[in-house]
Amino acid sequence: MGRHYLPNLAHRDEMLKEIGFTSIEDLFSDVPKGMVKEFNLPEGKSEYEVFTELNGILSQNKTVLEMPSFLGAGTYFHYVPAHVKYLIERSEFLTAYTPYQPEVSQGMLQALFEYQSMIAELVGLPIVNSSMYDWGTAMAEAALMSARVTRKKKFVVPKHLSPEKKAVLRTYTAGPGMEIVEVPWDERGQLDIEKLKEAVEGAAGVYIEMPNFFGILEENIAEIGEVAHDAGALFVVGVDPTILGIVEAPGELGADVVVGEAAYFGNPMNFGGPRAGIFAVRNDKKLIRQMPGRVIGMTKTAEERGPS
């Protein structure tokens, strides 16, 4: 007992006999001919031999460290400092319970509170949740929230938006029956504001990105926000937060809601995940009460004593 091994031919024959068959072919006799193919697999090898062979195959690939790659369409290489891995391996994170229940550890609560505080400072809006699944779902949740707040069912987005984000948005908004309207870009690769003015009537929200899908920063973000607000729509800005150390915060440019991708701060690409979606709103009760997700906050005791 306790030994682990692969069955040899004798073991295989013994198992076949136990279930009433004499060969592998008999076992699959009910499967129509042509459905089962011969795999023609090589003989088994030791772990080190397999490692060496696979490493040789993998060495034929070009990595993101050797050449620029735009295949991710949002999943890009970002340098992750060595201390990030050390921090996330600390016991308060490794032993933390899921943050969706009150039993979450104090260490995780503290970390999430600090995350919210950092994002609020970066994006220029005071209320931040922790968090959505990723940028795409945060954007889709912002569309749904816009509809709830404004009682309208049209959401305006740039035509130059990631196909993956468009697919997520259409999936989320199909049930409520929302209309998704795409506005084209101009000759500079930026949102065509004149076309936006034609499309914004009756909109619940207007969405743009910093930078956009072409990697270009929109020059007239504040003006786009004014167009949205004049039509009674919420202004939603999606942002790569790593640019916010050198460009003006979207909250300072009139954004009501800011969404984005927090994974850029420290997650490797990992074939596209895991992710963390940023979601922030301005200090408005209507928005706060309709904001999805969870918020970690500080409170006071009955004696009005706060955190020390």
Give structural notes.
The chain is of the alpha/beta class and 308 residues long. The protein has a domain at 85-290: Aspartate Aminotransferase, domain 2, CATH 3.40.640. The chain contains eleven helices and seven strands. Strands 1-7-6-5-4-2-3 form a seven-stranded mixed β-sheet, sandwiched between helices.
Draw up the topology in text:
Layout: H1 9-18, H2 24-27, H3 47-58, H4 82-88, H5 91-94, H6 106-123, E1 127-128, H7 135-150, E2 154-158, H8 163-174, E3 179-183, H9 193-199, E4 205-210, H10 221-230, E5 234-239, E6 257-261, E7 277-281, H11 285-290
Parallel strand pairs: 2-3, 2-4, 4-5, 5-6
Antiparallel strand pairs: 1-7, 6-7
Helix pairs in contact: 7-8
The name of the CATH architecture of the domain at 85-290 is 3-Layer(aba) Sandwich
Q: How does the overall form come out from the CA principal axes?
A: extended
Q: How does the helix and strand content classify structurally?
A: alpha/beta
Q: Strand count, sense and closure of the main sheet?
A: 7 strands, mixed
SSE run: HHHHHHEHEHEHEHEEEH
Helix content: 25-40%
State which percent range the strand residues make up.
5-15%
Radius of gyration, taken over Cα atoms and rounded to an integer in Å? 26 Å
- The CATH topology of the domain at 85-290 is what? Aspartate Aminotransferase, domain 2
Question: Which CATH C-level class of the domain at 85-290 is it?
Answer: Alpha Beta
Q: How many helices does DSSP assign? A: 11
**Major β-sheet strand ordering:** 1-7-6-5-4-2-3
Unreliable residue stretches: 1-5
First-to-last CA distance: 56 Å
Overall mean pLDDT stands at 89
